[in-house]
Amino acid sequence: MRLLVTGGAGFIGSNFVHHVVAHTDHHVTVLDKLTYAGNRASLDGLPGDRVAFVQGDIADAAIVDPLVADADAVVHYAAESHNDNSLHDPRPFLDTNVIGTYTLLEAVRRHGVRFHHISTDEVYGDLELDDPARFTEQTPYNPSSPYSSTKAGSDLLVRAWVRSFGVAATISNCSNNYGPYQHVEKFIPRQITNVIRGIRPKLYGAGANVRDWIHADDHSSAVLTILEKGRIGETYLIGADGEKDNKTVVELILTLMGQDPGAYDHVTDRAGHDLRYAIDSTKLRTELGWMPQYGDFEAGLAVTIDWYRQHEDWWAPSKDGVEAFYAEKGQ
Ligand code: NAD
Ligand code: TDX
Q1: pLDDT value at residue 189
Q2: What is the pTM of this model?
Q3: Cα 278 to Cα 124, 268, 296, 300, distances in angstroms
Q4: Which secondary-structure segment (H or E) carries 51?
């Protein structure tokens, strides 16, 4: 297959391109705008006869149209992805997540191309900390932030284009990813690189908020499974039973890096901070036979810490700017 991967120079998109090259014969064209979050170096080392790169905006129909016409399937990762940025300046989230997705949908509709839309569990809002429930494909949409509301909007556009125009699309909603190539603005890489730089990790509020962690490579294998075996028009939730509160994760990072597990600061909480996300991925596991491979979060985190230790050249150019942005907000 010839895959068009949008956002393939970002965190999860680049992990997916590496996964596809290692595990399939597919050819990949990456379409990425290279915003602050995109990094061409995340695709270094991949074979030129398997992976092509085009710099461009998914909201630009003139760029999108010929690339979609040449593809057998589009896997759509490109997005503005950071909640804290969406609280500061929501506009790019509307432009990319809503208008960008609309532009891609119109192109796949014109050319009859298969579409897989990457989304997030945040479209479902949050759960109480003491609620035993987890999100399923039936959970009503209830997004909290400008980021998650634009992702919810993009999911609904995909559903409408399936129903109204017969577009051959699937959707997946995944929980929090960790692994290599994640931008230092995000929770886990921020704390790892803080410790490397001798800065104390920063925990929002009390740190009781729970996230359901999955390794990015498990997300990639799930997306490939849905692309190959998923039923058109269906939504699949992706998760690996990795619920942890933020305080536990910070303490684990400090311990794995040989520091005092209490050597972190509590900082100003995020506005509207979602309490807990948790995914029930029974449908994907039973209907499509997918299983995560990275069962041990602590082992996966240790490998991720090593990656950041060995790739300071990859993350260092972004670090000071990100910390200055957080410092202005008391975070
Ligand atoms: P990221 O911010 O690391 O990467 C986003 C990529 O999209 C970057 O390379 C950026 O340059 C590119 N991009 C942004 N705007 C663009 C535009 N207008 N045109 C073309 N390219 C553009 O994000 P990520 O964490 O890798 O997330 C990827 C996708 O996965 C997003 O759709 C996100 O909603 C979803 N998701 C993320 C997580 C997570 O834990 N990070 C979990 C579930 C779902
Ligand atoms: O310095 C920090 N300290 C802190 O306590 C940062 C950056 C975050 N946090 C908290 C906020 C969250 O409870 O850690 C948790 C994780 O934060 P993020 O890495 O910003 O992720 P989150 O807001 O949960 O969203 C992520 O998962 C779902 C991705 O960024 C989204 O793109 C995805 O949709």
Answers
A1: 98
A2: 0.99
A3: 10, 24, 17, 19
A4: strand 51-55
The closest residue, in CA terms, to atom 20 on ligand 2 is 186
Sorted by sequence, the CB contacts under 8 Å of residue 106 that are 6+ apart come out as: 61
Question: Could you tell me the two tokens for 8?
Answer: 């393939």
Chain segment 171-215, per-residue pLDDT in tens: 999 999 999 999 999 999 999 999 999 999 999 999 999 999 999
pLDDT at 218 (0 to 100): 98
**Mean of per-residue pLDDT scores for the chain:** 98
- In tens, the pLDDT along 77-130 reads 999 999 999 999 999 999 999 999 999 999 999 999 999 999 999 999 999 999
User: Which pLDDT does position 258 carry in this prediction?
Assistant: 98
250 exposed, middle or buried (CB, 10 Å; 0-12, 13-18, 19+)?
buried
Residue 147 Cβ inside 6 Å of ligand 1? The answer reads no
Query: Which ligand sits closest to the CA of 37?
Result: 1
**Per-residue pLDDT, 279:** 98
β-pairing verdict for 177-178 and 214-215: parallel
Give me the domains of the chain, ranges plus CATH numbers: 2-177+214-238 (3.40.50.720)
pLDDT at 13: 99
For 97, list phi and psi in degrees, rounded to 5.
-75, -35
Residues sharing a CB contact under 8 Å with residue 45, sequence separation 6 or more, in sequence order? none
Residue from 105, 107, 74, 80 nearest 5 by CA:
74
Q: How many angstroms separate the CA atoms of 98 and 101, rounded? A: 5
Nearest to 98 by CA among 125, 117, 84: 117
Amino acid identity at 91: R
Nearest CA to ligand 2 atom 14: 187
Q: Give how far the C-alpha of residue 31 lies from the chain's centroid of Cα atoms, to the nearest Å.
A: 16
CA–centroid distance, 185 to ligand 2, in Å, is 9
Residues 6+ apart with CB under 8 A from 23: 221, 224
